[in-house]
Amino acid sequence: MLDVGTGSGGFSLGLTEKWTHLDVTLVDLASITPVTRRFLEEADATNRIAIVAADLVGTSCPGELLDSFDVAVLKNFLQVLSPNDVQSALRHVIQTLHPGGRIYVTGHILDDTRITPIETARFNLVFLNIYENGQAYTRNEYETWLSETGFADIVFLEDDLVTAIKPT
Question: Which SS3 state, helix, strand or coil, does residue 33 take?
Answer without folding.
Answer: helix
